[in-house]
Amino acid sequence: MQLGEDGEVEVLHTYRDGNPEESLYCCCWMVDTAQPGNAPLLLVAGDLGVVKVINAEKGQLEHYFLGHGNAINSIRGHPTTPHLFATASKDESVRLWNLKTRTAVLVMGGSGGHCNEVLCLDFHPEGKWLVTCGMDRSAKIWDLEPHRQHFEASDAWAGSRAAFATRVVQFPMFSTTTVHPNYVDCVRCVGDLVCSKSVDNQIVVWKPECSPYHPNDAFEVIHRYRTENCGLWFIKFSVDRGFKRIIIGNCSGKVFLFNLETGSLDAKVQMKQKAPSAVRMVSFNADGDVAIGCCDDGSIFRLDIVEKGTDVKPT
Length: 315
Prior knowledge:
By secondary structure, the protein is mainly beta. The chain has two domains: about 20-225, YVTN repeat-like/Quinoprotein amine dehydrogenase (Methylamine Dehydrogenase, Chain H, 7 Propeller), CATH 2.130.10.10; about 240-315, Thrombin, subunit H (Beta Barrel). Helix content is about 5%, strand content about 45%. The protein has one helix and 27 strands. It has one helix spanning about 150-155; strands spanning about 1-5, 10, 25-30, 40-45, 50-55, 60-65, 70-75, 85-90, 95-100, 105-110, 120-125, 130-135, 140-145, 165-170, 175, 185-190, 195, 200-210, 220-225, 240, 245-250, 255-260, 265-270, 280-285, 290-295, 300-305, 310-315. A five-stranded mixed β-sheet has the order 7-8-9-10-14, with helices on one face. A four-stranded antiparallel β-sheet has the order 3-4-5-6, with no helix packed on it. Strands 11-12-13-15 form a four-stranded antiparallel β-sheet, with no helix packed on it. A hairpin with an 8-residue loop joins strand 3 and strand 4 (about 40-45). The chain is globular and about 55 Å long. The two termini are about 15 Å apart.
Protein backbone atom coordinates (compact mmCIF):
# COMPACT_ATOMS: atom_id res chain seq x y z
CA MET A 1 0.00 0.00 0.00
CA GLN A 2 1.00 3.62 -0.52
CA LEU A 3 -0.17 6.60 1.51
CA GLY A 4 -1.41 9.53 -0.56
CA GLU A 5 -1.19 13.18 0.44
CA ASP A 6 -4.99 13.41 0.40
CA GLY A 7 -5.30 10.73 3.10
CA GLU A 8 -6.11 7.89 0.71
CA VAL A 9 -4.49 4.46 0.88
CA GLU A 10 -3.62 3.00 -2.54
CA VAL A 11 -3.17 -0.75 -2.98
CA LEU A 12 -0.08 -1.42 -5.12
CA HIS A 13 0.30 -5.22 -4.94
CA THR A 14 -1.65 -8.17 -3.57
CA TYR A 15 -0.01 -11.48 -2.66
CA ARG A 16 -2.02 -14.66 -2.16
CA ASP A 17 -0.45 -17.80 -0.69
CA GLY A 18 -0.88 -20.83 -2.90
CA ASN A 19 -1.30 -23.26 -0.01
CA PRO A 20 -4.96 -23.31 1.18
CA GLU A 21 -3.82 -24.59 4.58
CA GLU A 22 -1.68 -21.52 5.27
CA SER A 23 -2.83 -18.64 7.49
CA LEU A 24 -0.40 -15.72 7.67
CA TYR A 25 0.09 -14.15 11.11
CA CYS A 26 2.98 -11.70 10.70
CA CYS A 27 5.12 -9.78 8.21
CA CYS A 28 8.29 -7.70 8.11
CA TRP A 29 9.95 -5.36 5.60
CA MET A 30 13.64 -5.89 4.79
CA VAL A 31 16.02 -5.12 1.89
CA ASP A 32 18.01 -7.42 -0.35
CA THR A 33 21.59 -6.42 0.48
CA ALA A 34 23.00 -9.29 -1.60
CA GLN A 35 21.88 -7.69 -4.88
CA PRO A 36 22.54 -4.23 -6.36
CA GLY A 37 19.78 -1.74 -5.67
CA ASN A 38 18.68 -3.13 -2.29
CA ALA A 39 15.29 -4.34 -3.51
CA PRO A 40 12.50 -4.23 -0.92
CA LEU A 41 11.66 -7.65 0.50
CA LEU A 42 8.50 -8.63 2.34
CA LEU A 43 8.85 -11.52 4.79
CA VAL A 44 5.62 -13.29 5.75
CA ALA A 45 4.94 -16.32 7.95
CA GLY A 46 2.14 -18.04 9.81
CA ASP A 47 0.50 -21.32 10.62
CA LEU A 48 2.82 -23.60 8.62
CA GLY A 49 6.00 -22.28 10.26
CA VAL A 50 7.62 -21.25 6.98
CA VAL A 51 9.13 -17.80 6.35
CA LYS A 52 8.48 -16.73 2.76
CA VAL A 53 10.57 -13.98 1.18
CA ILE A 54 8.74 -11.93 -1.46
CA ASN A 55 10.59 -9.50 -3.71
CA ALA A 56 8.17 -6.55 -3.76
CA GLU A 57 9.97 -4.97 -6.72
CA LYS A 58 9.68 -8.06 -8.92
CA GLY A 59 6.44 -9.33 -7.40
CA GLN A 60 7.73 -12.86 -6.91
CA LEU A 61 8.68 -15.36 -4.20
CA GLU A 62 12.48 -15.47 -3.86
CA HIS A 63 13.12 -17.88 -1.00
CA TYR A 64 11.61 -19.63 1.99
CA PHE A 65 13.13 -20.55 5.36
CA LEU A 66 12.35 -23.89 7.01
CA GLY A 67 13.23 -24.86 10.57
CA HIS A 68 10.41 -24.13 12.97
CA GLY A 69 8.26 -27.06 13.98
CA ASN A 70 5.06 -25.07 14.36
CA ALA A 71 3.41 -21.73 13.60
CA ILE A 72 5.40 -18.48 13.50
CA ASN A 73 3.83 -15.64 15.49
CA SER A 74 6.30 -12.78 14.96
CA ILE A 75 9.12 -11.59 12.65
CA ARG A 76 11.52 -8.72 13.34
CA GLY A 77 14.49 -7.42 11.38
CA HIS A 78 17.81 -6.65 13.08
CA PRO A 79 18.17 -2.85 13.56
CA THR A 80 21.87 -2.55 12.65
CA THR A 81 22.55 -5.60 10.48
CA PRO A 82 19.94 -5.44 7.70
CA HIS A 83 20.30 -9.05 6.54
CA LEU A 84 19.56 -10.64 9.94
CA PHE A 85 16.05 -11.30 11.22
CA ALA A 86 14.45 -13.27 14.04
CA THR A 87 11.26 -15.32 14.34
CA ALA A 88 9.17 -16.40 17.35
CA SER A 89 7.25 -19.64 17.16
CA LYS A 90 4.58 -21.81 18.71
CA ASP A 91 7.28 -24.51 18.94
CA GLU A 92 8.64 -22.60 22.02
CA SER A 93 11.78 -21.41 20.23
CA VAL A 94 13.19 -18.22 18.72
CA ARG A 95 15.42 -18.39 15.65
CA LEU A 96 17.85 -15.91 14.11
CA TRP A 97 18.35 -16.14 10.34
CA ASN A 98 20.78 -14.71 7.78
CA LEU A 99 18.89 -13.47 4.74
CA LYS A 100 22.06 -12.99 2.66
CA THR A 101 23.40 -16.56 2.95
CA ARG A 102 20.00 -18.22 3.74
CA THR A 103 21.42 -19.80 6.92
CA ALA A 104 19.93 -20.48 10.36
CA VAL A 105 22.33 -18.72 12.74
CA LEU A 106 20.91 -19.16 16.26
CA VAL A 107 18.19 -21.15 17.97
CA MET A 108 17.14 -19.73 21.34
CA GLY A 109 15.25 -22.22 23.48
CA GLY A 110 15.64 -25.28 25.65
CA SER A 111 16.19 -25.62 29.40
CA GLY A 112 16.05 -21.88 30.12
CA GLY A 113 13.78 -20.92 27.26
CA HIS A 114 10.04 -20.51 26.94
CA CYS A 115 7.85 -23.41 28.01
CA ASN A 116 4.89 -22.44 25.83
CA GLU A 117 4.52 -20.72 22.47
CA VAL A 118 6.52 -17.54 21.91
CA LEU A 119 4.17 -14.77 20.82
CA CYS A 120 6.37 -11.74 20.12
CA LEU A 121 9.96 -10.47 19.99
CA ASP A 122 11.97 -7.32 19.43
CA PHE A 123 15.61 -6.23 19.14
CA HIS A 124 17.37 -3.68 21.28
CA PRO A 125 17.88 -0.55 19.08
CA GLU A 126 21.63 -1.26 19.01
CA GLY A 127 21.08 -4.95 18.32
CA LYS A 128 22.89 -6.07 21.46
CA TRP A 129 20.04 -8.19 22.78
CA LEU A 130 16.69 -9.68 21.88
CA VAL A 131 13.59 -9.63 24.09
CA THR A 132 10.87 -12.28 23.77
CA CYS A 133 7.53 -13.01 25.44
CA GLY A 134 4.96 -15.75 25.37
CA MET A 135 2.07 -17.76 26.70
CA ASP A 136 4.12 -18.90 29.71
CA ARG A 137 3.66 -15.33 31.13
CA SER A 138 7.38 -14.70 30.79
CA ALA A 139 9.56 -12.04 29.20
CA LYS A 140 13.13 -13.08 28.42
CA ILE A 141 16.18 -11.19 27.20
CA TRP A 142 18.80 -13.00 25.12
CA ASP A 143 22.32 -11.59 24.93
CA LEU A 144 23.55 -11.42 21.32
CA GLU A 145 26.99 -9.91 21.95
CA PRO A 146 28.78 -13.25 22.56
CA HIS A 147 27.64 -14.45 19.11
CA ARG A 148 29.05 -11.63 16.96
CA GLN A 149 31.75 -13.84 15.46
CA HIS A 150 29.15 -16.47 14.67
CA PHE A 151 27.10 -13.82 12.84
CA GLU A 152 30.21 -12.94 10.79
CA ALA A 153 30.80 -16.62 10.06
CA SER A 154 27.28 -16.90 8.69
CA ASP A 155 27.92 -13.84 6.47
CA ALA A 156 30.99 -15.51 4.95
CA TRP A 157 29.43 -18.97 4.60
CA ALA A 158 29.69 -20.31 1.04
CA GLY A 159 28.84 -23.96 1.58
CA SER A 160 25.56 -25.81 1.82
CA ARG A 161 22.98 -23.96 3.93
CA ALA A 162 22.14 -27.17 5.76
CA ALA A 163 25.82 -27.69 6.66
CA PHE A 164 26.15 -24.40 8.55
CA ALA A 165 26.56 -25.05 12.30
CA THR A 166 23.52 -23.37 13.84
CA ARG A 167 24.29 -22.41 17.43
CA VAL A 168 21.82 -23.33 20.21
CA VAL A 169 21.39 -20.88 23.10
CA GLN A 170 19.47 -22.39 26.02
CA PHE A 171 19.73 -19.71 28.71
CA PRO A 172 18.74 -16.02 28.50
CA MET A 173 20.50 -13.35 30.53
CA PHE A 174 17.16 -12.16 31.96
CA SER A 175 13.83 -13.85 32.62
CA THR A 176 10.75 -12.86 34.59
CA THR A 177 7.13 -13.98 34.98
CA THR A 178 6.06 -11.20 37.34
CA VAL A 179 5.53 -8.22 35.02
CA HIS A 180 2.12 -9.56 33.97
CA PRO A 181 -0.26 -12.08 35.60
CA ASN A 182 -1.24 -13.64 32.25
CA TYR A 183 0.41 -14.51 28.96
CA VAL A 184 2.38 -11.71 27.32
CA ASP A 185 1.46 -11.18 23.66
CA CYS A 186 3.40 -8.06 22.65
CA VAL A 187 6.80 -6.63 23.55
CA ARG A 188 8.91 -3.74 22.24
CA CYS A 189 12.29 -2.23 23.16
CA VAL A 190 12.59 1.47 23.97
CA GLY A 191 16.31 1.98 24.35
CA ASP A 192 17.30 0.00 27.44
CA LEU A 193 13.64 -0.14 28.55
CA VAL A 194 11.04 -2.75 27.64
CA CYS A 195 7.34 -2.21 26.87
CA SER A 196 5.12 -5.25 27.24
CA LYS A 197 1.41 -6.02 27.13
CA SER A 198 -0.83 -8.78 28.39
CA VAL A 199 -4.62 -9.23 28.37
CA ASP A 200 -4.97 -7.35 31.68
CA ASN A 201 -5.81 -4.01 30.01
CA GLN A 202 -2.45 -2.39 30.55
CA ILE A 203 0.93 -1.79 28.93
CA VAL A 204 3.91 -1.77 31.29
CA VAL A 205 7.17 0.07 30.62
CA TRP A 206 9.95 -1.41 32.73
CA LYS A 207 13.71 -1.45 33.08
CA PRO A 208 15.36 -4.88 33.42
CA GLU A 209 18.51 -5.37 35.44
CA CYS A 210 20.44 -7.27 32.79
CA SER A 211 23.80 -8.88 33.37
CA PRO A 212 25.33 -11.61 31.22
CA TYR A 213 27.31 -12.78 34.26
CA HIS A 214 24.56 -12.76 36.91
CA PRO A 215 21.19 -13.53 35.27
CA ASN A 216 18.23 -12.46 37.39
CA ASP A 217 14.60 -11.35 37.20
CA ALA A 218 14.82 -7.91 38.87
CA PHE A 219 13.18 -4.96 37.12
CA GLU A 220 11.87 -1.47 37.81
CA VAL A 221 8.44 -0.35 36.58
CA ILE A 222 8.63 3.06 34.86
CA HIS A 223 5.05 3.53 33.60
CA ARG A 224 1.75 1.66 33.54
CA TYR A 225 -0.72 2.62 30.82
CA ARG A 226 -4.34 1.59 31.36
CA THR A 227 -6.42 0.66 28.31
CA GLU A 228 -10.11 -0.11 27.93
CA ASN A 229 -11.67 -3.33 26.66
CA CYS A 230 -8.32 -4.73 25.55
CA GLY A 231 -8.61 -8.23 27.02
CA LEU A 232 -8.50 -10.04 23.69
CA TRP A 233 -5.15 -11.74 23.04
CA PHE A 234 -3.00 -10.94 20.02
CA ILE A 235 -3.69 -7.20 19.99
CA LYS A 236 -0.38 -5.54 19.12
CA PHE A 237 0.89 -2.08 20.03
CA SER A 238 3.69 -0.08 18.36
CA VAL A 239 6.29 2.46 19.43
CA ASP A 240 7.41 5.30 17.14
CA ARG A 241 11.06 5.54 16.07
CA GLY A 242 11.68 8.53 18.31
CA PHE A 243 10.51 6.57 21.36
CA LYS A 244 7.96 9.28 22.17
CA ARG A 245 4.64 7.47 21.84
CA ILE A 246 2.87 4.13 22.08
CA ILE A 247 -0.22 3.39 20.00
CA ILE A 248 -2.68 0.53 20.50
CA GLY A 249 -6.25 -0.41 19.56
CA ASN A 250 -8.89 -2.31 21.52
CA CYS A 251 -11.80 -4.71 21.04
CA SER A 252 -14.41 -1.98 20.43
CA GLY A 253 -12.65 -0.08 17.64
CA LYS A 254 -10.88 2.56 19.73
CA VAL A 255 -7.25 3.65 19.41
CA PHE A 256 -5.15 5.01 22.30
CA LEU A 257 -2.07 7.19 21.94
CA PHE A 258 0.18 7.24 25.02
CA ASN A 259 3.09 9.56 25.79
CA LEU A 260 6.28 7.70 26.71
CA GLU A 261 7.92 10.75 28.23
CA THR A 262 5.10 11.77 30.58
CA GLY A 263 3.41 8.42 31.12
CA SER A 264 0.03 9.93 30.17
CA LEU A 265 -2.72 9.44 27.59
CA ASP A 266 -2.26 11.86 24.67
CA ALA A 267 -5.37 10.99 22.68
CA LYS A 268 -8.19 8.48 22.19
CA VAL A 269 -10.18 8.09 18.99
CA GLN A 270 -13.11 5.90 17.90
CA MET A 271 -12.90 4.37 14.43
CA LYS A 272 -15.80 5.10 12.08
CA GLN A 273 -17.20 1.59 11.67
CA LYS A 274 -20.75 0.36 11.13
CA ALA A 275 -20.18 -2.18 13.87
CA PRO A 276 -17.23 -1.82 16.30
CA SER A 277 -14.48 -4.29 15.40
CA ALA A 278 -11.30 -5.21 17.28
CA VAL A 279 -8.23 -3.22 16.20
CA ARG A 280 -5.56 -5.91 16.03
CA MET A 281 -2.54 -3.80 15.09
CA VAL A 282 -1.57 -0.16 14.67
CA SER A 283 1.85 0.88 13.38
CA PHE A 284 3.59 4.26 12.93
CA ASN A 285 5.26 5.48 9.76
CA ALA A 286 8.94 6.48 9.87
CA ASP A 287 8.19 10.07 10.92
CA GLY A 288 5.66 9.10 13.61
CA ASP A 289 2.96 11.44 12.26
CA VAL A 290 0.86 8.78 10.52
CA ALA A 291 -0.36 5.41 11.78
CA ILE A 292 -1.92 2.53 9.86
CA GLY A 293 -4.14 -0.03 11.58
CA CYS A 294 -6.08 -3.18 10.73
CA CYS A 295 -9.26 -4.61 12.23
CA ASP A 296 -10.98 -7.96 12.64
CA ASP A 297 -13.54 -7.06 9.97
CA GLY A 298 -10.78 -6.81 7.34
CA SER A 299 -10.74 -3.01 7.25
CA ILE A 300 -7.57 -0.90 7.17
CA PHE A 301 -7.49 2.67 8.46
CA ARG A 302 -5.13 5.64 8.54
CA LEU A 303 -4.63 8.06 11.45
CA ASP A 304 -2.98 11.46 10.95
CA ILE A 305 -1.39 12.76 14.15
CA VAL A 306 -1.38 16.56 14.35
CA GLU A 307 0.88 18.28 16.88
CA LYS A 308 -1.60 20.96 18.02
CA GLY A 309 -2.29 19.87 21.56
CA THR A 310 -1.91 16.42 20.04
CA ASP A 311 -4.93 15.76 17.84
CA VAL A 312 -5.60 12.51 16.01
CA LYS A 313 -7.70 12.47 12.84
CA PRO A 314 -8.98 9.16 11.38
CA THR A 315 -9.30 8.76 7.63
